[in-house]
Amino acid sequence: MMELSQRELLPGIKLTALQTNKFKTSMLAFTFLEPLSAKTAAENALIPAVLRRGCQSYPDMLSMSAALDDLYGGAIEPMVRKKGETQCIGLLGSFLDDCYIPEESNILESAIELMAQLLLKPAGEPLSFVPDYLESEKQNLASRIRSRINDKQQYAVYRLTSQMCAGEAYGVDKLGEVEAVEAITQEGLWARYQALLVSSPIQLYYCGAAPIARVEAAMRAALSALPQGERTSSTATVTTQASTQEGAHYFEDHMDVLQGKLVMGFRLDASYTESSAAAALLVFNAIYGGSTNAKLFLNVRERLSLCYYANSMADKYKGILLVSSGIAFDQYEKAKDEILAQLDDCRKGHITQQELESARRFVINNLCLTADAQGRLEDFWLGQAVVGSDDPPNVLEQAAEAVTLEEIQILAQKMHLDSVYFLQGKEGETL
Amino acid sequence: MIRRHYDTIDETVLEETLDNGLKIFVFPKEGFGKNFAFFATNYGGMDTRFCAESVWCDTPMGVAHFLEHKMFDTKDGNALQTLSSNGASPNAFTGAALTGYYFEGSDGFEENLDTLLSFVSEPYFTEESVEKEQGIIGQEIQMIEDNPNWQVYMKLMAALYREHPVRNSVAGSRESIAEITAQTLYQCHASFYDPSNMVLCVAGDVNPKKVFDSAKRILPREGKERVARDYGAADRPEAHQSEITLSMQVSTPIFQLGFKLRPAEDGAERLRQKLLAELLCEAWMGSSSPLYARLYEQGLINQSFFYGYEAYPGCAFLLSGGESRDPAAVREAILLEAERIVKEGLDTGLFMRLKKAAYGNQVRALNSFEHLCVEQARSYFSGEDIWIFPQMYARIQKEDVERALRDWISEERTAMSVIRPKGAGE
Question: pTM for the complete prediction?
Answer without folding.
Answer: 0.94
